[in-house]
Design goal:
4-stranded parallel beta sheet; alpha/beta; 8 helices; 5-stranded mixed beta sheet
């Protein structure tokens, strides 16, 4: 396949089994696909019509993946949460009230800023961590920047906060989001729960079953601080991962 573009004269970091680094190498691209990797002189000869992007003094590497990225709110309220709070306090008394006050425009702008910063730092695929009220607007932002990734919507039925509710209502919202962003697209939906200790057993089981039925991933928070473990021990007599394993 003839290439449209050759990224030339950079240090190419491959992901082949040997993790070879090609000093002064090149990458040939046709449309959205990499069609050749090798020496700059060889690729210029085999793809003479391709445009040249000079990557001298640059590193050319596959796009990185951020498997847990909050794209709502954070970029609009940086450095506002103290670092020395009691475990759990930053979530319930700082982050969640901020999220609850966000508008659809806020979330799209935050998503746009987050994805632009990600791309500037070599991240081209990201998994949203499930704290969005307007996944359709986040999807718009991600497509605008051109990244790949997943979107989700708040999923929890314990405590109070944005889009909490009975577990069947929460699962209905998850289904609607999955319908809006089907698998195989540039931006797809995953089943997303807030996690921590903020889901009933019914919601945890139902969410996992939904992810399996739709053939998508599932993401949630688990034990970033000791408070999750303490709640699970008090509630179930088991630590979080042991309890999740018992639920299947």
């Amino acid at each position: 396949m003839p290439a449209d573009l050759i990224v030339a004269n950079g240090d190419v970091v491959t992901m082949n089994p040997n993790r070879d680094v090609l000093a002064g190498g090149a990458v040939a691209v046709a449309g959205t696909r990499i069609v050749d990797v090798g020496a700059t002189s060889a690729l210029r000869q085999s793809h003479p019509e391709a445009a040249i992007l000079d990557a001298t003094d640059c590193v050319v590497t596959p796009g990185m993946i951020n498997a847990h990225q909050h794209m709502g709110g954070g970029p609009l309220a940086r450095s506002c949460i103290p670092d020395d709070l009691v475990p759990g306090t930053s979530i319930f008394f700082w982050s969640i009230p901020r999220h609850a006050a966000e508008t659809a425009d806020d979330e799209e702008l935050a998503g746009l800023l987050s994805t632009v910063e990600s791309v500037r730092n070599g991240i081209t695929t990201m998994i949203e961590a499930g704290t969005m009220s307007y996944p359709d607007r986040l999807g718009n932002a991600m497509r605008t920047v051109g990244v790949r990734g997943t979107v989700g919507i708040w999923g929890w039925d314990v405590e109070s906060g944005p889009l909490t509710g009975p577990y069947d209502e929460v699962l209905d919202r998850q289904r609607q989001t999955l319908d809006a962003f089907p698998p195989g697209e540039q931006v797809t939906a995953w089943v997303t729960l807030v996690g921590h200790s903020l889901a009933s057993d019914e919601l945890l089981v139902g969410a996992a079953d939904l992810a399996r039925a739709r053939g998508v991933g599932m993401t949630m928070h688990m034990s970033p601080t000791s408070s999750d473990g303490e709640v699970y021990l008090k509630r179930h007599g088991r630590r979080p991962m042991v309890h999740l394993d018992q639920l299947g």
